[in-house]
């Protein structure tokens, strides 16, 4: 990894699977964040139905992305 990166923490969920919960969070993040480089699962949880079957999945992710270099046009170099 080169350059400067920033890491933020985001959470979300899915009723289908852990993988879908992760994809949901990353997909939503990618709508507004460029250059996502990696993620790390910080928390995994969910809810259970009365029959003991998982009914939803929640994830908290640390998402790391590159910080763009500033371009200072018109500045003397």
Could you tell me the mean pLDDT? Answer: 92
Spatial separation of the terminal alpha carbons = 28 Å
Secondary structure: number of strands: 3
CATH architectural designation: 2-Layer Sandwich
Order of helices and strands: EHEE
Shape: elongated
- Tally of separate helices: 1
The Rg value, from CA coordinates, equals 17 Å
Low-confidence stretches: none
User: What would CATH call the class?
Assistant: Alpha Beta
- Helix/sheet category: alpha+beta
The CATH H-level superfamily is Flavin-binding protein dodecin
State the major sheet: 3 strands, antiparallel
Q: Nutshell version of this structure?
A:
The chain has 1 helix and 3 strands; from the N terminus they run βαββ. By secondary structure, the protein is α+β, with helices and mostly antiparallel strands.
Can you describe what's shown?
It is a single chain. The chain is α+β, with helices and mostly antiparallel strands. The protein has a single domain (5-66), classed as Dodecin subunit-like (2-Layer Sandwich). Helix content is 17%, strand content 47%. It has 1 helix and 3 strands, in the order βαββ. A 3-stranded antiparallel beta sheet has the order 1-3-2, with helices on one face. The model has no long low-confidence stretch (mean pLDDT 92).
Element layout with pairings:
Elements: E1 5-14, H1 18-30, E2 36-48, E3 54-66
Antiparallel strand pairs: 1-3, 2-3
